[in-house]
Design goal:
Strand content of chain A: 15-25%
Strand order of the largest sheet of chain A: 3-2-4-7-1-8-14-13-9-12
Number of helices of chain A: 15
Low-confidence stretches of chain A: none
Helix content of chain A: 25-40%
Shape of chain A: globular
Oligomer: homodimer
Largest interface: A-B, 63 and 63 residues
Largest sheet of chain A: 10 strands, mixed
């Protein structure tokens, strides 16, 4: 298969950006990524664009043509939506586009504008990713993940403290990420004393509502890869889906889509979890990071609660596996359409030594994990250093 | 490039289907297409799903996972949205997926549920595909195409009657399509005496608000193609975008995205418009069929108004070019997410001799043309008989 590489990355600030529109953010990310790579817009063959909520929140659809207007080009622009996995799906489709021979270089762009709305509106809008029955029952995403957390804690005899350590660790990482939504560290006591959102999840177990956009440049052009000072190699991208309704799952202790996508990913590139030392995963809630590390094969099922307490997945204190150096969704924020792209961008920064004060020492293989809804969609990508 | 073929097609009834939900319709189309091909669901490697409005109208997103629930499979399911071109874009991405080697057989599925809402809600929701400025000015899609029609009629000295003939012709075709929304013929007098929606467009110049779903099975599996009794060969699929705002276009007499996509398509397969004798194109309004036939290269710019009057693109009375045997969007209906897929399905029926009372005599090469918004996105696909 033809070699493909990410050769550039740009992210806007993530946070409550009340003075910026979605289009402002997308424009900044799009041209930011071009500037990083030194490419002109006419060197981009297509754009894969991810966004979840602009239709629901702002009656704003067909953003492909609106992006065409910004760039003054008539290239194909595809929008994909798979709830919070939209960014990962856009990357996957962009990669397939290149591998099909339809183009040489594409831009993967994602963004979301979420903080201009009251909390009820935004929570209800996000619940659009849940099943009709779950929505009618009044379940929101904290509620759904609260059920998963209850099941996990009771089955394996853990307490809410086991969850809280994930938040402490991710906020520690986030304190080194100047583009992140939150840059404050949290103590265990702070997380534990925060109010409940959906028991056993407290507000500091939950990723925030954020604005932001991110873009990467992906290419199969060997000359361009060769000339690029910064790059990471794409080894594989895999997608799986699962029933969205929790009631239809055989097992609430695992997210099957994550399991299937990661098994396919490891098989496709001939690696095992032991080979990976850097992961950006989908910690929309603290329980989600624990489930993900188990379902991706890094920790045995049920061990995650105990492992979380050790906090040994830090960039500066670990046993060989480092998780969410960006601060994850929890600290760096979760502007839905941007998240899956920012995850890849974080690996790009780390592998190329561009991660400033949170730079890890070395990385052979790295993985991203992006989830839609309560596990209905999962995208797992594996990357490496680019060796010519 | 590896050969790819459409090997099955199913469409639900299009129309005002108040007793059916979107999921009902999608399920019928999905399993209908499988039944047509004799395939089991586990022979499908991925689904490409198109829908425009379920988020906006029904707070219903992440439909990939909801489709996974229906089929009980964990395969990748991608949703794409490019307004009324969503179906064509899903097909394009599905084709690229197969050509990248990621799978052998995919299902392209699209649907829309539009008739449960009052006209103001649906018109405003559809306007989500227009620019913010156009929306704020109160422009709806009839308004935008009304401006295009005014420009065309005044530049080339035509009258509203030139437009009306398109509607008469498409309703004639529609009278032979038992799955279509409208199966009544219309006289020129009926079209001309219908009330204005946005001058010069009258209600009978406009495609209707419809419910419906459609699905096709697309494969690169040579054995499967060989065994399939019915098939059409995919020669090329091309996409282009353009500024969505009419005010930013250099020329209101053509849809540039259509022009670019069709030029790329003809070049890619070494054909010219003269080689094509069957077209399903995007006649969301009567003016759109005239512009499309010019921009696709079948008629010189400005000739369309005169050609329309001749009504010589009928399946049973033509000069070698037959247009919209399904009845087009005008008569067969326009459930947005389904439209681009139904267009391909109509060619599949015609080329395989399955088009019952509207069957054409023969077809060498056929083309579909699917548009988003007022021309912001265009997808052009070319097909042929499948010769082993």
């Amino acid at each position: 298969m033809v070699n493909s590489a990410v050769i550039g990355y740009y992210t806007t600030q993530f946070g409550e950006l009340w003075e910026r529109s979605l289009m402002d953010l997308l424009k900044e990310a799009l041209f930011g990524a071009l500037t990083e790579t030194g490419l002109q817009i006419d060197q981009i063959d297509a754009i894969f664009f991810s966004n979840m909520l602009s239709g629901v929140l702002d009656n704003d659809l067909h953003l492909g043509a609106k992006i065409s207007e910004i760039i003054g080009q008539n290239i194909p622009i595809f929008r994909t939506e798979s709830a919070c996995a939209s960014g990962g799906m856009a990357f996957h489709l962009g990669l397939n586009y290149l591998r099909s021979g339809s183009g040489k270089t594409v831009l993967i762009l994602g963004g979301e504008k979420m903080t201009d709305y009251d909390l009820e509106t935004i929570t209800t809008s996000l619940a659009s990713a849940a099943s009709e029955e779950e929505q009618q029952a009044g379940l929101t995403f904290p509620g759904l993940y609260g059920l998963l957390a209850q099941s996990y804690l009771s089955t394996f005899n853990y307490t809410e403290e086991n969850l809280a350590h994930i938040s402490v660790k991710n906020h520690y990482h986030g304190s080194f990420n100047e583009k992140g939504h939150f840059q404050n560290q949290l103590s265990l006591q702070q997380v534990m004393s925060s109010p409940y959102v959906a028991s056993p999840l407290k507000v500091l177990d939950c990723s925030p509502i954020s604005d932001g956009a991110a873009a990467i440049v992906l290419t199969v052009d060997a000359n361009l890869i060769n000339k690029s000072p910064h790059k990471i190699k794409v080894l594989t991208s895999q997608v799986a889906t699962d029933t969205i309704s929790l009631k239809d799952r055989q097992n609430l202790l695992e997210l099957k889509a994550t399991k299937i996508a990661s098994e396919k990913a490891f098989k496709a590139c001939g690696l095992t979890p032991k080979d990976i030392n850097l992961v950006e995963l989908h910690d929309c809630f603290t329980i989600a990071e624990i489930l993900a590390l188990e379902d991706l094969g890094f920790w045995e099922k049920g061990r995650g609660g105990a492992e979380a307490v050790k906090q040994k997945t830090r960039f500066d204190d670990n046993d060989g596996l480092i998780v969410n150096t960006s601060g994850g969704l929890k600290a760096s924020g979760h502007p839905v359409g941007a998240t899956g792209i920012k995850q890849i961008g974080e690996l790009f920064l780390q592998i190329n030594g561009l991660a400033t004060s949170r730079q890890i020492q070395s990385c052979n293989y790295a993985l991203t994990h992006n989830v839609g809804g309560s596990g209905g969609t999962a995208v797992v990508n594996i990357f490496s250093n680019y060796e010519d």
